[in-house]
Write a sequence for this structure.
């Protein structure tokens, strides 16, 4: 039911402002420990806060954003956050509570410099007693001429109940659908400046739940909701990329960068005509030529960012490289190119895997094993065999013909390994012709036979 | 520039189809803020209007707004360009399907129409265009809006339910009953995580191969995996391979914007990494057959403007000197000639000699005929003259020595300094006499440069002059660096004959003027063995002098 005087769309936008404020402000507060306010990593957070507050003020006029432990109230509309965002919200609530300043009143348009002043004021007030801190913040704002921002006490006290626990499947599904929704909107409206930011806001939940519950994440990828292919593809590749990133040893920050690069790698597709993107048949040469320009457009989307920091540079590289192929025989037709970025190699694999296993307008998706077989050497020469090997291990599925090392110390070839789930373990044949079921006890030791390594041609792997 | 427009080849009078297409494309680029270069929007709108009138030939003309772009009678007016598609997509969002132009439509109406068509309507509410036109009609122009609800887009495989609908259902209390979400959530909830034992059976798979990515991981952790040079490489290929020249220039402007940002942040190496290859592309070094060199040349004109190096003085720091040298050298090589004087003047204002010399060296390479530089010098004043003189110092222009010597009297100390550099390769009595006179210049940089000349030629007549300057130097009057230069210069010029006077200087000034004493010690060291022997003797004699020697040696 719409708040009195507001239509549903405006309500939604107001809630979105509060959500964005909370997420960006909490990110800025955390980053302040590591970076200066002028560091390129801070720009995104600070600009996001300024945009959110300015939009709120435009929508409502004299607006109040109140941070609560379990939700953010923007101009009288309560918005609950989820997952990692909720955790950040709780931390932000504590941070602001220590300064007795849980609410922010906005009475004019807010610039990035205003936000920097506010952050400095909050930081300095941390050295004071809570009873003095709020006054100190407002005084600092006055001295800096930022009279259109004021902190207020807000409602105090932690609520008695603990946070509402949302089960992982639902949390993951929500994040997946949010990503799909944003991707679909981008395809309809084009990639606007806020598109990437909105996409990135969803990533922390995907990373948190996906890494904690990889089987759940893989199940969701396999049984993805029946939305448009493009929307599903963005969500699936991002989630799969996150899982692969963890297997390859990426930490949280790098995983976020990887996910950000994967989610934005095909934003250039948004300017292609629908009849090319959704052709119910194989594309003509002319249509292929059009399609092959989309990396250039994706590059342009990322170059529009205000600051060319490390995250943006990685995104640009992935956008350009993800279809180049290991031998650079893909597209676009670059003259010379060094070793592909690791993120690009991961992006290429997850992109190809999801495309192979998804139904497209002109063919049905392949079973997992057949798709992996197409990605493995020697059939495939385009994709990084190391990343493909990790994908096989992640899925627990080994294409027939895959060469592996066993825990018994011998090499073997997979002769039956197309299972899609945990219970379907491969069967291998050693060089002596002996067939072994993985998991069955070894003859000599009685220990279950395990795969210790997928053998990848080292020369091919080094060439990247 | 649209690459796929049909139409007659451009021979003889300009082809109105190409004119209309190019004008509209350029106007769209300006209106939508694709980059920093300003254009004449009014002029472009006029060009479009005139071209359309030529095409219409007084008849009614219908322009269809299609997914390809703007078409008329099945022929592309502006189409098959990514920007055209974006524009028509935005117009479709406003439900505009066609525009009908009456035969007698006024050119002013067409100009207004052009501006209207290229505006970014995705930033406006639905129906904004129709509302605007209901308030302000354009005479002679009828816009056809689709009144019925737009067709649903062709369903993609797996479609039929949108993510937004599913999200709304998921957030409601009825998710479990939803025909899609209910079963899906149930299946997901039933997903079993792989047991530890089972995970262990395939855990090792891939792990050994992970060593292959160790180098990548190390670079990622250090943040050295994605550099500005990488982006420069991407930018080169993205621009070179873009079939649309206008799109390519849009990309250039974005990269140039980032490069400017790096310059303002005092990071010239990063800036050069972004644009260096593009400068080469514009100069025809990378791909001589690239069809958009003229367009890029225009963009480079805008980029390599004097404003780019404005404030150079504040930005240049020693630790970035190499980066600035490289950047300015490369820029000077490609700045269009008509922009060069202003560019050189701006760069010439930087007091850091190495930076000015970099611009000068690029000029010397670019104009190997010294008469060109000399002709320019004749008209030039101030910073530009200084840079030209530094450029001339790299070439043999003995015949024009007098012209350079005349600049030793210039009111700008940077010019006087540069003139001394320029005449360094010439040893004539008159030159030496004028350089000795420059030893009394009011500016230290000029005096030191004069001294350098005298050292090169070991001008014995200058020895007494240098010594006199040392003896007359009172504490605080002459900088320590100049004192050192004078003392070492004396050592180079007079050699062994300098040992005695320098030794006396050390003894006489060790207590009252230690900076001069240290400088004299440096002078003794520059003499060689004789000087070093003198230093040893002095150190043995006097503990205070020994301390100064220690300081100097350190």
């Amino acid at each position: 039911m719409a708040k009195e005087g507001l239509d549903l769309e405006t309500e939604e936008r107001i809630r979105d402002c509060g959500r964005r404020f909370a997420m960006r402000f909490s990110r800025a507060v955390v980053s302040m420990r590591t970076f200066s306010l002028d560091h390129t990593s801070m720009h995104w957070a600070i600009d996001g806060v300024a945009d959110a507050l300015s939009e709120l003020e435009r929508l409502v006029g004299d607006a109040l954003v109140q941070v609560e432990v379990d939700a953010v109230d923007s101009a009288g509309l309560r918005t609950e956050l989820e997952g990692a965002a909720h955790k950040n919200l709780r931390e932000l609530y504590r941070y602001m509570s220590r300064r007795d300043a849980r609410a922010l009143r906005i009475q004019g348009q807010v610039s990035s410099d205003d936000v920097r002043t506010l952050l400095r004021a909050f930081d300095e007030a941390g050295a004071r007693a809570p009873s003095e801190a709020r006054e100190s913040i407002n005084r600092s704002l006055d001295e800096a001429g930022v009279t259109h921002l004021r902190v207020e006490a807000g409602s105090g006290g932690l609520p008695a109940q603990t946070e509402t626990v949302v089960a992982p499947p639902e949390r993951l599904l929500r994040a997946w659908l949010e990503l799909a929704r944003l991707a679909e909107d981008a395809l309809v409206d084009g990639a606007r400046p806020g598109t990437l930011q909105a996409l990135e806001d969803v990533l922390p939940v995907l990373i948190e739940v996906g890494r904690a519950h990889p089987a759940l994440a893989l199940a969701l990828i396999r049984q993805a909701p029946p939305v448009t292919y493009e929307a599903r593809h963005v969500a699936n590749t991002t989630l799969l990329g996150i899982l692969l990133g963890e297997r390859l040893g990426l930490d949280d920050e790098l995983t976020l960068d990887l996910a950000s690069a994967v989610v934005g790698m095909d934003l250039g597709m948004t300017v292609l005509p629908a009849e090319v993107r959704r052709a119910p048949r194989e594309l003509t040469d002319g249509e292929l030529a059009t399609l092959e320009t989309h990396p250039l457009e994706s590059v342009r989307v990322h170059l529009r960012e205000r600051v060319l920091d490390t995250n943006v540079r990685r995104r640009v590289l992935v956008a350009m490289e993800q279809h180049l192929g290991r031998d650079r025989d893909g597209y676009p037709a670059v003259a010379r190119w060094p070793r592909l970025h690791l993120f690009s190699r991961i992006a290429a694999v997850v992109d190809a895997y999801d495309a192979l296993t998804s139904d497209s307008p002109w063919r049905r998706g392949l079973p997992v094993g057949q798709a992996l077989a197409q990605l493995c050497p020697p059939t495939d020469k385009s994709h990084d065999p190391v990343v493909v090997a990790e994908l096989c291990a992640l899925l627990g599925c080994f294409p027939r013909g895959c060469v592996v090392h066993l825990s018994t110390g011998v090499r073997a070839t997979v002769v039956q390994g197309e299972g899609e789930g945990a219970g379907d373990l491969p069967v291998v044949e050693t060089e002596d012709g002996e067939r072994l079921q993985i998991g069955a006890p070894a003859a000599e030791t009685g220990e279950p036979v395990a795969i210790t390594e997928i053998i990848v041609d080292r020369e091919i792997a080094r060439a990247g | 520039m649209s690459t796929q427009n049909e139409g007659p080849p451009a021979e003889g009078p300009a082809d109105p189809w190409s004119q209309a297409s190019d004008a509209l494309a350029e106007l769209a680029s300006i209106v939508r803020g694709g980059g920093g270069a300003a254009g004449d929007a009014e002029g472009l709108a006029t060009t479009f209007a005139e071209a359309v009138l030529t095409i219409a030939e007084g008849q009614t003309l219908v322009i269809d707004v299609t997914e390809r772009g703007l078409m008329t009678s099945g022929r592309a007016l502006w189409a098959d360009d990514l920007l055209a598609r974006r524009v028509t997509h935005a117009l479709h969002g406003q439900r505009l399907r066609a525009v009908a132009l009456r035969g007698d439509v006024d050119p002013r109406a067409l100009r207004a129409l052009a501006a209207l068509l290229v505006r970014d309507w995705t930033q406006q509410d639905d129906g904004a265009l129709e509302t605007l036109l209901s308030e302000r009609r354009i005479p002679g122009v009828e816009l056809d809006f689709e009144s019925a609800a737009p067709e649903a887009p062709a369903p993609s495989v797996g479609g039929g339910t949108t993510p937004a609908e599913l999200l709304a259902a998921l957030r409601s209390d009825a998710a479990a009953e939803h025909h899609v979400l209910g079963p899906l959530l149930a299946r997901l909830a039933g997903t079993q995580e792989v047991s530890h034992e089972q995970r262990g059976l395939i855990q090792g798979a891939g792990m050994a191969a992970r060593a292959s990515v160790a180098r990548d991981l190390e670079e990622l952790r250090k943040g050295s995996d994605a550099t500005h040079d990488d982006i420069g490489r991407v930018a080169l290929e993205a621009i070179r391979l873009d079939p649309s020249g206008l799109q390519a220039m849009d990309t250039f402007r974005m990269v140039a914007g980032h490069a400017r940002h790096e310059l303002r942040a005092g990071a010239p190496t990063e800036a050069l990494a972004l644009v260096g290859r593009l400068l080469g592309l514009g100069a025809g070094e990378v791909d001589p057959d690239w069809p958009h060199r003229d367009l890029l040349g225009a963009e480079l004109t805008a980029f390599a403007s004097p404003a780019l190096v404005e404030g150079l003085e504040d930005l240049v720091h020693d630790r970035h000197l190499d980066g600035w040298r490289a950047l300015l050298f490369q820029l000077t090589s490609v700045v269009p000639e008509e922009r060069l004087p202003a560019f050189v003047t701006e760069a010439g204002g930087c007091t850091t000699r190495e930076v000015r010399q970099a611009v000068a060296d690029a000029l010397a390479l670019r104009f190997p005929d010294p008469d060109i530089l000399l002709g320019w010098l004749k008209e030039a004043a101030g910073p530009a003259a200084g840079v030209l003189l530094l450029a001339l110092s790299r070439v043999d222009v003995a015949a024009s020595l007098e012209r350079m010597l005349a600049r030793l009297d210039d009111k700008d100390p940077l010019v006087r300094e540069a003139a001394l550099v320029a005449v360094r390769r010439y040893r004539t009595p008159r030159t030496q006499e004028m350089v000795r006179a420059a030893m009394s210049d009011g500016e230290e940089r000029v005096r030191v440069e004069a001294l350098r000349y005298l050292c090169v030629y070991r001008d014995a007549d200058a020895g007494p002059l240098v010594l006199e300057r040392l003896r007359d130097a009172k504490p605080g009057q002459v900088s320590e660096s100049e004192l050192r230069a004078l003392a070492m210069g004396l050592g180079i010029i007079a050699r062994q004959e300098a040992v005695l006077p320098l030794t006396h200087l050390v003894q006489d000034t060790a207590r009252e003027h230690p900076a001069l004493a240290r400088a004299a010690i440096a002078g003794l060291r520059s003499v060689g063995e004789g000087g070093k022997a003198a230093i040893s003797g002095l150190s043995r004699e006097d503990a205070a002098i020994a301390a100064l020697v220690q300081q100097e040696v350190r």
